[in-house]
Structures are given as C-alpha cells and as structure tokens.
Design a protein that fits this description.
6-stranded parallel β-sheet; 2 domains; alpha/beta; single chain; N-(1-d-carboxylethyl)-l-norvaline Dehydrogenase, domain 2; 10 helices; Rossmann fold; disordered N terminus; 13 strands
Length: 313
C-alpha cells in the first residue's frame, strides 16, 4: 500500500471519469496531498472542473489498462451501477487487504454487489448529492444541490472517507441513520431520472403542475416500500422530497437524461427496478413504478440506438 505513514501521500484510484467521477477526481487532485489516478478508456493528462465560482484545471495521471494497476489506499467506484461487473478487472487489480473502496453509485446493496470482485477490501457506501455533467473527456461541471455533496455512515470507514475529502469543499454528512438517507436518495432518483429521460427534458419539467402530481404519486408509492424496508420516514416524506427536488436548478439534468440523449443504456434497474423488487419482497403494490420500469427498460434495450440532439443540452 502507498500510505503507511503521515508523511506519505494517499493513492486514490477513480474508476469512471464521468460526471460524478470527474468532479471528485478533480477536487481531490487540486488538494495536492493525494496521488490521484484516473482509470479510463483513453488517456488524459489534465482535468477541468467547472463550478459556480469559476473553474480549476489540474494535471492527472491516467491508466487505460487494468494490468497496469496495483493495490491502492482508496478506490472510488464512479461507474453506473449496471457497469460494475465491467469494472471487475480494475477492482481486482486495485484492491488489496488494506484498500477502502467507496461506491459513488446510485441504488442500494452496494456491498453485496461488489463482494465477488474486491476480496478483503472494505466497501464504503456513499450517497452522492451533487449534480455533475460531463462536457468532454477531460472537462466536467459541478452543480451543488442541497446542503451536502455526500452522506456516509457514522462508522470508521465513513469517517475515513470524510477525512479523505477534507479540504475539497465537498460538504459531507456523517449520519447514524444511513439506511433512511440511502432510501430517500433512491426515491428521488427513481422518480426524477426516468421522468427526465422519458420526457427528454431537464429538471424544468418538474415545474409543470401535471408532472408534479405524477411525481408525488410515484413518491408516495415508493415511500411505502421504503418504510417496509426499514427507512424511518415521516408521514409527509413524499411532499418533502418533491419540495426538495424543486429547489434544484431547472437547467440541471439527471444521469439518466444524459444517457438517453447519448443513446446509452439506462440505469433503470438500479433505481426504479430496486423499488419494484423491494415492493415484491414486502408485498407492497407498485403499479406506477412498474410502468416507469417497463418504459425505461424498453428505451434502454432498444436495439438501434441513435444520439439525440435536444435543445439546451
């Protein structure tokens, strides 16, 4: 391992330099106390992160072949959930007994999903709240949304992740009720992502009265599932979530929206699919979410993909 003492630099490998991974890789590299490695398909030597105060540009080391990797202190897994298995070669090379792997992914059940690939490495689930947009292979945009950029569990691994990001300006919530927060984020994602992807509109679409009414019904249905799974939600959780969504910038997109435009597969199984599957386990009907799941699958599985051009993208 690279960091065995306070004087040595922490080595952080970022798998997936998209909208989420690009932002965090740039923020960590800007600290200049970590050695950040970007695990990418095509090499880059610098990274630009745009934000409301301007932009930062940092040099960055990139690897394009998993065989070039060796165990590191931290792995940040920033791929889409459905691409976890394709990252297996990276994970197997980068993870050692002392590695912590933080999952910057949507959905639930991350530790179980990674178990076949990471050996004795410690899996650190995180909740990502910031909105990222990939502008080019070496350029991303950060939009803050809400009061925090991350949430982690109040345990040794969660606190270590918070310490890793200290100084980046990323606001991290350390919580004793991670289950409730991860379900809260899942509900927002399982509603906002398919609606923006299916309508091909950014978050401005949620200002429509009819869309707001639909979203509230989606959230009420999913909240019943989350409570059965152990989330401690108040009675007005769906209304609060919708109000939170409406505080986000109308020009912000969702990851599924950008995937739809680019003709990529949608992350529908990890989001809406997780709600529907949990509903089946707990015998709670989810008819609206099933409709979204069916339509999302049809879009995602379309055999002939084409890149869409949408005004404002």
């Amino acid at each position: 391992m690279a960091s065995t003492g306070d004087s040595e630099r922490t080595v952080v490998a970022v798998i997936g330099l998209g909208s989420i991974g690009g932002v965090i890789a740039g923020q960590l590299a800007a600290l200049d106390r970590h050695d950040v490695i970007a695990c990418v398909r095509r090499p880059i030597d610098s990274l630009v992160v745009e934000h409301s105060e301007g932009a930062i540009e940092v040099p960055i080391r990139s690897l394009t072949d998993p065989d070039q990797g060796k165990p590191v202190d931290w792995v940040l897994l920033c791929t889409k959930t459905q691409d976890t298995e394709t990252a297996a070669a990276w994970l197997q090379r980068l993870c050692g007994p002392g590695t912590r792997i933080a999952t910057l992914q949507n959905g639930i059940g991350h530790a179980d999903r990674l178990a076949p690939f990471v050996g004795d490495a410690a899996v650190v689930p995180t909740i990502v709240y910031y909105n990222g947009e990939r502008l080019a292979p070496d350029r991303v945009r950060l939009r803050r949304a809400g009061n925090h950029e991350f949430a982690v569990s109040d345990d040794e691994d969660g606190r270590a992740f918070a310490a890793l990001l200290d100084g980046t300006g990323m606001r991290i919530l350390v919580t004793s009720d991670f289950k409730t927060l991860v379900w809260r984020k899942l509900l927002l994602n399982a509603m906002a992502n398919p609606v923006t992807a299916l309508t091909l509109q950014r978050q401005a679409v949620f200002r429509r009265g009819d869309v707001k009414a639909l979203c509230l019904d989606i959230l009420k249905e999913a909240a019943a599932v989350a409570r059965a799974a152990g989330a401690r939600f108040p009675d007005d959780e769906p209304e609060q979530l919708l109000a939170t969504l409406l505080t986000y910038p109308p020009e912000a997109g969702t990851s599924m929206y950008f995937d739809r435009i680019a003709g990529r597969p949608l992350e529908i199984e990890a989001l809406t699919g997780a709600v529907v599957a949990a509903g089946e386990r707990h015998r709670i009907p989810t008819p609206i979410n099933r409709v979204l799941l069916t339509l999302g699958r049809a879009v995602s599985d379309a055999p002939a993909r084409m890149t869409l051009t949408v005004p404002g993208t």
